[in-house]
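Ticket #281: bound-state structure for NDP.
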Amino acid sequence: MPHFISSLRIFLTIGYDSLICDEYGMEVSMDTKIAIVTGSSRGLGKSMALHLAQRGVGVIITYYTKQDEAQAVVKEIERLGSKAVALQLDVSDSKSFEDFSQRVQAALQQTWKRDSFDFLVNNAGTGIHAPFAETTEAQFDQMVNIHLKGVFFLTQKLLPIIVDQGRILNLSSGLTRFSLPGYAAYASMKGAVETLTKYLAKELGPRGITVNVVAPGAIETDFGGGLVRDNPQVNSFVASQTTLGRVGLPDDIGGVVASLLSDDNRWVNAQRIEVSGGMFI
Ligand code: NDP
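RESOLUTION: The complex was predicted; output attached.
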């Protein structure tokens, strides 16, 4: 780096107390917002992370098994000029949340010189497709642990390091408004998350924290083994039941999430926002 640029950086650092430098001498704005997006190695979470990064938000990516995909998202965010860190997380293992919180705090300090973050997006999750009569207790427990217990206790664990005026966004599904055979256990958990969202909004309001829930329609991702994306019959059925005439894409959701977390939407609270292109209306 030319000497005059580094001198300018040092001048800016001294001249504006909203700027500090990280370990590489790069400027870190104290105004930079930081988001944790769970399950952002691929699918909807990845799109959310990239849309947030385009708006200058720093992102903590989490992955379950696909570390390489998560690192690729980190690189893409860095190319966009923002910062990101990838951490492993199993949302079905609430005993691991204390350790995860410690790793988040270390990453915040190391990368952003912060001890808190601004936005939590509870996105991670998998589905099961099984008729009600054949759903096993093990499948049911898996859905509880991932979609309800995980969201409940991860949010509880991270609460002390979410800033006042921060934001929490939970992910639900169109399947809480309409019903399709095979989703009884999965959709029941999403219904519970919608109720939890209202209770969180009520209790966190005094800290200025808003809590909302985004309910996507069917989107082309790996979810459910990529059924909606890869099965032509399912794909065209969903498109035929959607007023905008096609199946949703990850970027249809990522942009909404980044927008909801922007200051323009600061007065939106305790709401279920369905993003389905008008499915089954
Ligand atoms: P994908 O299958 O494309 O991605 C799932 C993400 O969650 C991955 O990052 C994966 O990590 C992570 N993940 C999976 N299991 C765990 C776990 N036990 N602990 C932590 N992370 C985990 O799914 P989508 O992007 O489609 O779904 C994201 C969210 O959106 C889910 O909550 C889903 O219920 C909801 N949703 C999806 C819809 C759709 O049609 N796609 C519709 C409505 C709601 P890794 O890559 O490491 O495996």
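RESOLUTION NOTES: Confidence is low (pLDDT under 50) at residues 1-18.
TICKET STATUS: resolved
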